[in-house]
Amino acid sequence: MKILVTGAGGQIGADLLPRLVARGDSVTVFDLAPQPATCPSEVRWVRGDVTMAGEVFDAVKAARPDRLFHLAAILSATGERVPHRAWAVNMEGTRNVLEAARLFDVGQVFFTSTIAAFGPGLEPPVGDDVSLRPTTMYGLTKVGGELLGEWYQRTYGVDFRGVRFPGLISAAEPGGGTSDYALFMYVNGLRDGFYEAFVTPESQIPFMYMPDAVRAVLELSDAPRASLGRSIYNIAAISPTAAEIADAVRERIPGVRLTFRSDPRRQAILDSWPSVLDDSNARKDWGWSHEYDLASMSDDLLAKLREPASVP
Ligand code: SER
């Protein structure tokens, strides 16, 4: 199958691209960033900007993908610093991708939405169909992307589907999110022997280990359309507090020093998100089920980080 992935130079792409190549897909990437050394050599890497419609159209026209995985986005913390850029990338970029899919008959557009689509005050566990009142530029543009994709599906028949990801934890460098403290406890804890998290120990949001996240993308993408009762699905895995993550790291890295100093800006973003998601629609419609809990994720991630040359 021919796959085009936007924004694959980021945290998700680092794990998704090898999986796509391994299963025999012909993969093209569209990203502003240059091809990283770790990217499989089979991948065709096209440099370009999702906010430039012409560049997106040229890339889609040349690649003629069966499926387009749209990962390019400005995340929550960066989005509050550069809100105009976040609007351009997340809103106009998504419109350009959907428009290209319509013009060049792309078989499916896969959208990566987020827990940041939700706003404060929702009773956990938070389901798919609650009122979406995000308070960040990232969150509101992701809600816009969800609705725009559904409009393209209704109006032009573009097969649009996607997931609302929890905070994602992996060995790859994250790209300016608010959930990054969890990953840094492992990566910086192992590399430097200490890390000060920018949240309170009680902070609690949903998280997922990257191998589960990549599997979710592939499983929903492969699901027959007729089995899907909706386009966008909550997916959930674990919801540890920051203190629980720190304890899991301390148990596995003897002598590591993990402390907490809450940064008011990022704490406010975090506190506006749900602590626990309800993903029963994903479980019912396409058989979603997470594999990794906090303990098995911690063991696997630290084993990966301890492999030579893997700590960024
Ligand atoms: N990881 C994202 C962020 O922190 C949430 O989707 O912005």
Question: In a nutshell, what does this entry contain?
Answer:
With 312 residues, this protein is α/β, with parallel strands linked by helices.
Describe, in plain words, how this protein is organized in 3D:
- By secondary structure, the protein is of the alpha/beta class.
- It folds into two domains: 2-166 and 208-234, Rossmann fold, CATH 3.40.50; 168-206 and 237-275 and 291-305, UDP-galactose 4-epimerase, domain 1.
- Helices cover 43% and strands 16% of the residues.
- The chain has helices spanning 11-22, 53-63, 76-81, 83-103, 137-156, 180-192, 210-222, 242-252, 264-271, 280-286, 294-306, and strands at 2-6, 26-31, 44-47, 67-70, 108-114, 160-165, 167-169, 194-197, 207-209, 232-234, 257-260.
- Strands 3-2-1-4-5-6-10 form a seven-stranded parallel sheet, sandwiched between helices. A two-stranded parallel sheet has the order 7-9. It has a two-stranded parallel ribbon with strand order 8-11.
- Helix 1 (11-22) links the parallel strand 1 and strand 2 (26-31).
- The chain is globular and about 55 Å long.
- The site of serine has 11 residues, from loops.
Structural class call reads alpha/beta
CATH level 3 topology of the largest domain: Rossmann fold
The appropriate CATH architecture of the largest domain is 3-Layer(aba) Sandwich
Rounded radius of gyration (Å): 19 Å
Total of DSSP H or I helical runs spanning 4+ residues: 11
Strand order of the largest sheet: 3-2-1-4-5-6-10
Strand portion, in percent? Answer: 15-25%
> What is the typical, i.e. mean, pLDDT?
97
Helix content class = 40-55%
Uncertain ranges: none
Largest sheet: 7 strands, parallel
Q: Per the principal axes of the C-alpha atoms, what is the gross shape? A: globular
Q: Count the beta strands.
A: 11
Using the coordinates above, name the CATH class of the largest domain: Alpha Beta
First-residue to last-residue Cα separation? 32 Å
- The name of the CATH superfamily of the largest domain reads NAD(P)-binding Rossmann-like Domain
Can you list the ligands bound to this structure? serine
Query: What order do the helices and strands follow?
Result: EHEEHEHHEHEEHEEHEHEHHH
- Overall structural domain count: 2
